[in-house]
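note to self — DONT lose this again. spent like an hour looking for the file last time. sequence + predicted structure for the chain T wanted, 142 res
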Amino acid sequence: MLQLCPERSLKLMKNIILLILLLTFTSQLKAQNYDLPPNSKAGKCYERCFDYEKRFEWKEVDCAKFKAEKNREKTQEQLIKFKQQKIRMVKYQEKLKTLGYEIDITGIADNKTIIAHHKYLKKKKKEEKRKRRAEKRKAKSE
């Protein structure tokens, strides 16, 4: 059996604890949660706003109106609109998945979908910027 001197074993123990703490805090910094709005205030109501051309955001809504809409029965038109939105989201998630993003196709804008959406928008913006630069260079050379 291998025996270490007390000073060496203490140093090894400190290094192991430091490594565990470092890994724990690093993984916490990387995680982003879009299930709750950032800087939310108690007593305020928020609504998810997902636009296919913009970053995901939360908007503050009137709580009384929100609760009344939630308790009211949905009309046939509202149900159809909801189903159409879900189908559109499924198609968008399939598009993101074919582009290589790791997401689950659920028809709901979950955390993975939102993160992939933000990455896709960032990539799209970079491509548009490159395209504009190339057009400017082409115009200058002519």
